[in-house]
Design brief:
heterodimer, A: 616 residues, alpha/beta, B: 83 residues, alpha+beta, 2 helices
């Protein structure tokens, strides 16, 4: 079978490439990885006016064919037809920012010289107009020798014309201008790009740009950091406040469904597997979906408005004190959602030592998988009252845990930079894109992709681990007067771990949860849920997990457990991605070891302090 | 005509023209990223903002783009302030 034609969407970072890709393909897209590297591959389908299907691939943004990062290397290799896992594109859709032509045309000229059928999207033309820039599209097209179409991806302007041009290009591929041949000298290229850009300007009215006015406030030496702190604070309050209703509804729904199905089934092993294994385990994880979605909502909005890079700018100096760069701020902030994409995002850090250090401390940022653990313990032990109007005590404690992770990460980076990863470093070079209104559709696609990844983990790794743990916890069956968690296989394994963690205040149930928590942190909650629902006496009925642990743990133990999870050795996925990104087992092994020591000390210190204050 | 100075000595909001860039003082990757940003003799630049901690990094307008670079790299760019 013949493949449908492949069109590569290519352009500079911040040209609005992904927005155009989303607008053209809608929800018909897939995210994968290029083999051997951890660069994401986004493909989607597009149907032309005459019904022919086209495959569209969104290449990573690049400044030129001389890559300075692994992402840019993939873009170059695809365009030269030597990237594994991708055929040579049949045509190019080059995306340029209409208000930044003099810069973007340099890469465009290089791309045109590749000789592939090409159409150019002169994107964000509305913002150029807003900035007082009037462009001659026909002249630009004549100078470049390829069709140019003015587009506004976020308003779907120019999309039909793009489809039309692509259709024509693919029917009768034209060889485009032979011209003067490829220009190799970077400065000659730059000057030619600038000449064409200047030639395309009809009129320019100087206006005070919106971006400049906003930057005067958001990058203000005093206001800037305050606003950043406020945004992060609101973000973490919202994670709790907005998610309360949907999370409660999901939890109630799961309990009801579990009870209903449990009552309909005959007693015995199958019923136990379904009610105690499946519903107690997976149910306990799915209720955290609202919080994960809210957190990603903030991250995606900050990213798409252009604020995320400003945050990196504000934080660069502090990060450089810790031996990191402001560039590490984005991967580390992403690690609040999950360390796996966070570590993958470190590819944008050019300096290898900056990058390695960022990878090693990324797991200290509180990932969303730790949220279930935090919210469970906080919900069970910390009263839901306000310490000030609009400031809940629970949210405050959660904020504190996040801060502890951040401070821990920065201190760890300082130490790592002075010991195991010495020397080098010190680059921070980023473009500050124009501010933009985020588009709901783009955010929705991003959220949907993240939620799907989380649910796949809940449905895959977590489901498997939960069922294995249920089996370990259910057999052999306890006799009369015995507690199930004492006699089971899992109980015996827990006993062994308990010897090590008893000094830091962990009871047997926690010991039991530590091992499966390595599969994925949120499994800790599922594991505890499974243990307690098996132990539950008949008269207890169906209680929520929070009610169950409140009766069984001391406050000192609960606090120690929280402290443990601030530093806890991360999940298997994180170890795997670290191995991949550092090309070996040396660094993941180091990472696990140092995090284990930190977690043990932090939990110990917390427990002993709490006991000394009489909370044991 | 004013004397050439380095980009990091320029007062915020002062427009200037790049006179030269000391490419050799930069690492290969850093130099090529600065070129990608459009730093080159004859280009108009204007420092816009300073990082809140230690007046580092700098946000600089280059042509139509705004980029963030550290002081140490701005030092490699010689500029002539507009009169």
């Amino acid at each position: 079978m013949k493949h449908s034609p492949l069109v590569a969407v290519v352009g500079n970072p911040n040209a609005g490439k992904s927005a155009l890709f989303n607008a053209l393909t809608g929800a018909r897209q897939k995210v994968g990885n290029y083999p051997g590297v951890t660069v994401e591959r986004h493909v989607g389908r597009l149907t032309l006016a005459d019904g022919r299907p086209i495959e569209l691939v969104d290449l990573p943004g690049a400044y030129g064919l001389d890559p300075t990062s692994p992402d840019e290397a993939v873009t170059r290799d695809v365009l030269l037809g030597r990237q594994k896992g991708e055929r040579l594109p049949d045509a190019l859709l080059i995306v340029v920012d209409a208000s930044n032509l003099d810069n973007h045309l340099r890469f465009t000229l290089q791309l045109i010289d590749l000789g592939l059928p090409t159409v150019i999207a002169l994107n964000m033309i509305d913002l150029a107009t807003r900035d007082g820039l009037e462009l001659d599209v026909a002249k630009l097209s004549a100078d470049l020798g390829v069709p140019v179409i003015a587009t506004v991806a976020v308003r779907k302007r120019g999309l039909d014309e793009i489809r039309g041009e692509l259709g024509e290009l693919l029917i009768a591929p034209r060889t485009i201008r032979a011209g003067e041949g490829p220009i190799h000298d970077p400065l000659t290229l730059q000057r030619r790009a600038r000449d064409i850009a200047v030639g395309a300007i009809i009129r320019e009215t100087p206006v005070r740009r919106l971006t400049h006015r906003l930057d005067a406030i958001l990058l203000h030496p005093l206001l800037g950091p305050l606003i950043l702190a406020a945004i992060l604070f609101v973000m973490f309050q919202a994670v709790f406040a907005w998610s309360a209703f949907p999370a409660d509804a999901l939890e109630a729904g799961t309990v009801w469904l579990g009870t209903t199905i449990g009552n309909a089934l005959p007693g015995g092993v199958l019923r136990s597997l379904i009610v105690d294994g499946l519903f107690a385990g997976v149910g306990a994880v799915i209720v955290f979906l609202p919080q994960i979605i809210i957190l990603f909502l903030f991250i995606l909005v900050l990213e798409s408005t252009g604020y995320m890079v400003r945050a990196a700018f504000l934080m660069d100096r502090l990060m450089s004190r810790a031996g990191l760069s402001g560039r590490a701020f984005i991967p580390l902030l992403s690690s609040f959602a999950c360390a796996v994409p966070g570590i993958m995002a470190t590819r944008t850090i050019d300096d290898p030592k900056d990058r390695l250090t960022t990878i090693l401390v990324a797991p200290l940022m509180t990932c969303s998988a730790r949220l279930p653990v935090y919210t469970l313990i906080i919900g069970a032990f910390i009263p839901a009252r306000n310490v000030a109007p609009g400031v809940g005590l629970q949210g405050l404690i959660l904020f504190g845990l996040y801060v502890a992770g951040v401070v821990g990460a920065l201190l760890a980076a300082v130490v790592i930079r002075r010991t195991v990863v010495k020397g080098g470093g010190g680059a921070f070079m980023m473009e500050l894109p124009k501010y933009q209104m985020p588009r709901i559709g783009d955010i929705a696609i991003g959220l949907w992709q993240r939620a799907a990844i989380f649910l796949k983990r809940a449905g895959g790794i977590i489901l498997t681990t939960t069922i294995i743990l249920w089996a370990l916890a259910s057999f052999p069956v306890a006799g009369p007067g015995q507690k199930q968690s004492d006699v089971s296989i899992a109980g015996k394994i827990g006993d062994a771990i308990h010897v090590v963690v008893a000094p830091i205040g962990f009871n047997k149930d926690i010991s039991l949860a530590l091992l499966p928590a390595m599969a994925a942190r949120e499994v800790a909650v599922a594991a505890i849920a499974t243990v307690y629902s098996l132990d539950a006496a008949a008269d207890e009925g169906v209680q929520t997990l929070a009610e169950r642990i409140r009766g069984r743990w001391s406050l000192a133990t609960a606090l120690a457990f929280l402290a443990w999870f601030v530093f806890a050795p991360q999940c298997i996925s994180t170890i795997a991605v670290t191995r991949r990104e550092t090309n070996g087992w040396k660094w993941p092994a180091f990472m696990v070891a140092y995090l284990f020591v930190l977690a043990y000390l932090a939990a110990g210190a917390t427990y002993w302090t709490a006991v000394a204050f009489g909370l044991g | 005509m004013s004397a050439a100075t380095s980009l990091d000595d320029l007062k915020l909001g002062t427009r200037a023209m790049v006179a030269s860039v000391d490419w050799d003082s930069l690492e290969v990757g850093e130099a090529s990223r600065l070129r990608h940003f459009g730093f080159d003799a004859g280009v108009s630049v204007e420092p816009l903002h300073l990082g809140p901690f230690g007046r580092d990094p700098l946000a600089v307008r280059v042509g139509r783009m705004t980029v963030a670079i550290r002081r140490i790299h701005a030092r490699a760019v010689r500029v002539i302030p507009a009169a």
